[in-house]
Amino acid sequence: MHAELLTATDGEGDVKALAAWARVIGVSLSKHGELYSWRWNWERLRRVPPGLSPSGVVPEEGRAHKRGTFSRYKALGNEALEYFAPGHPLVDALARDALQTTDGRASVFACRLDEALRGGLYLHVVFRNEVDPGEELRAAGLLHRALTHLWMQVRSVWIRLHPTNARAPEIVERATEQQQLEKAAEDSPVRIDRDDLAAHFDVQALWKGVEAGVDAARQRVTAERAEEVAYAAAAIKEDFKQDFSYLESVLARSEGSEKQEALGEIETRNALLRAVSQERPVLEGLALLIPAP
């Protein structure tokens, strides 16, 4: 069970989304075998996310290099590796930057696509997971404890749209096609403004297709996260086992306000378990790719 939980909390599935956002800032990620290396030049960063420099003093120039793994399992097996996960200064800095900026929340691009990809429009949808415990649970200080088992992740899905006919949106399943779309989005994007878009497409029909595509992507991300959420809920419940045992003993021997306080503490933990089980994907951004002539 312990090994399964380690696998379920592996962060390697989020590498592409995190690396894509890092490139926007000027931070590059490369893979060497099973290890990853982050590199950047301080003077060439588009902006410096708060927390990227742990000392708080941002160098005016020079290079930075971080080497490690996104896998909790691998990091536990080699203490010399940095573990790139929530709590690591670089990962936290990139996550904060992605959440705070308004860059690229919704964009339309014309891209040169391979012949096999022509004939459709492509939607790239990015989600982050969110646990909404409510203000009472935030104040109780238990949320951080729970999120050690269910940290924030970013997931993206490619969708093929058919806005000119009644065909439903299709998830791009093939890894080769996903890679081709990612390369086209990086290499040759030309931003399209609203007027140009309206001149070539029925915007109302296109918007309906985008909404349907986002719904399909959300369902896919929810399904992909289901097992991880279940593992996290089980781990948190195990973590709370001693809490529940102690609070139930308080209930058995107490009366009045002390008993009510223990009941409240039990309900707070149960409410947090329910919130974790009801985790939902929150839309972070989307990009519509249109084949360039």
Write the SSE topology.
Layout: H1 2-8, H2 15-25, E1 28-32, E2 35-41, E3 63-69, H3 72-77, E4 82-83, H4 89-100, E5 106-111, E6 121-130, H5 134-139, H6 143-147, E7 154-161, E8 170-171, H7 175-187, E9 190-191, H8 194-200, H9 203-239, H10 241-253, H11 256-277, E10 280-291
Parallel strand pairs: 3-4, 5-10
Antiparallel strand pairs: 1-2, 2-3, 5-9, 6-7, 6-10, 7-8
Extended strand count: 10
Rounded mean pLDDT is 82
**Using only CA atoms, what is the Rg?**
23 Å
Lateral strand order in the biggest sheet: 8-7-6-10-5-9
Work out the oligomeric state of the chains in this entry.
single chain
Order of helices and strands: HHEEEHEHEEHHEEHEHHHHE
C-alpha end-to-end distance: 53 Å
Write down the domain tally.
2
- Beta content comes to 15-25%
Question: How would a crystallographer describe the biggest sheet?
Answer: 6 strands, mixed
Shape: globular
The helix fraction, in percent, is: 40-55%
Number of discrete helical segments = 11
Low-confidence stretches are 1-9
Structural class: alpha+beta
Short description:
By secondary structure, the chain is an alpha+beta fold. 47% of the residues lie in helices and 21% in strands.
Description:
- With 293 residues, this protein is α+β, with helices and mostly antiparallel strands.
- It folds into 2 domains: 1-103, no CATH class; 104-293, no CATH class.
- The protein contains 11 helices and 10 strands.
- The strands form 2 sheets. Strands 8-7-6-10-5-9 form a 6-stranded mixed β-sheet, with helices on both faces. A 4-stranded mixed β-sheet has the order 1-2-3-4.
- Strand 7 (154-161) and strand 8 (170-171) form a beta hairpin.
- Helix 10 (241-253) runs antiparallel to helix 11 (256-277).
- The longest helix is centred in the last third of the chain and has 37 residues, at 203-239.
- The chain is globular and about 75 Å long.
- Mean pLDDT is 82; it is low at 1-9.
